[in-house]
Amino acid sequence: MLEISTQLIKKVEKKERKAQIELYRLCFNDLMSIASRYNKNEEDSALLVNNCFLKIIDNLNKYNSSKPFQAWIRRIAINEVIDDYRKNKKRKELFVDTENIESNEGQSFSEIDHKIEAEELNNMLFELPKATRTVFSLIAIDGYSHKEIAKQLNISLETSKWHMKEARKRLKIMLIQKQQKSDV
Fold this sequence. Notes:
By secondary structure, this protein is mostly helical. Helix content is 67%, strand content 0%. Helix 1 packs across helix 2, helix 2 crosses helix 4 and helix 3 crosses helix 4. The protein is elongated, with a radius of gyration of 19 Å.
């Protein structure tokens, strides 16, 4: 659990450079963990971390010390991911045919009896289209609801559900293929 002293926060609010560097060092792993979950490119992840840190410094006076600091910075990081998604979405409009949603037939994730490393799962996630990966990660990893995602990403509820179903379907196929390769 990330614990930040009120003394360090006060120094950062006073714009003390050493305190800012120390806070950055303490927050870096948490922020990079979130950023790299949504960006395959390390440079994009680093840019997202830096943007998050700037927002943390700019909004430090809004931090409620009765709440965990780690939860507060994670919230900022997730919001930054969502903002980044919106910016990219505007550049590249996404079309999703929600009428042709395929049902999930066949094996479920629980039927696949193969242990998978976190790194392997992360690699599989990056094989998904960015929008699908973002929705899946926000639901499965960060605990958002479809309604929250639809509002945050400015997409319909049906589109959010489609992306989740599509992610599950594609990941299931990848897991089955991986299991078949290991059985050979």
